[in-house]
Specification:
By secondary structure, the protein is an all-alpha fold. The chain has helices spanning about 5-40, 45-70, 75-80, 85-105, 110-130.
């Protein structure tokens, strides 16, 4: 591999690290949003209703932050419908981790939830990436290039990354350049 290839690998790693950092940042914002909503709602409704509504509101916020900021892709109704799977995954990994840490590892049950939450981050990252970033596109082509080629429809970016209409063309599952009704 020549010097250009080495730069591509480093650039790819740097881009992946930046994406993971943005994911963690969104997680922190999401946690703060959830807790803030919970505290605001709790005086006006029973605690579990406040918890549920705060959870729902923060999950919606997390969806939009992750699509636009973390993965730099467009939201779609399909992604929106699948996004709760990230929360299910997070819950399952944290629950199993919590049980294992307390029962088998003898960890203090006040600390174990935090450790289990950290352990769940990579799983949640991978699931959210799978849902929000379509297969067959590289993330650098997710947003339209205003100076890029125009396809048969005359829209910028209507052809694939190679300039050929194909798997990433208009109407395909992986076309991130089409305007979304959620956008």
């Amino acid at each position: 591999m020549g010097p250009e290839g080495a730069g591509d690998v480093r650039g790819g790693r740097r881009a992946r690290f930046a994406e993971i950092f943005r994911f963690a940042l969104v997680g922190g914002v999401n946690t703060g949003t959830f807790f803030g909503c919970y505290l605001l709602l709790h005086p006006w409704m029973p605690y579990f209703a406040a918890y549920s509504l705060a959870f729902l509101l923060s999950m919606i916020g997390s969806f939009f932050l992750n699509t636009y900021f973390t993965y730099r892709t467009r939201p779609t109704w399909k992604k929106f419908a699948l996004f709760p799977l990230t929360n299910v995954t997070n819950y399952l990994v944290q629950s199993v981790g919590l049980y294992a840490l307390v029962t088998w590892a003898g960890m203090d049950d006040r600390i174990a939830p935090l450790v289990a939450a950290v352990v769940a981050i990579p799983f949640t990252y991978l699931i959210s990436q799978r849902i929000l970033v379509p297969r067959g596109t590289d993330r650098s082509s997710a947003a339209p290039d205003p100076t890029g080629p125009t396809g048969p429809t005359g829209q910028a970016g209507a052809t694939g990354p190679t300039g050929q209409a194909g798997a990433t063309g208009p109407g395909s599952e992986t076309d991130e350049r089409r305007p979304s009704r959620l956008a």
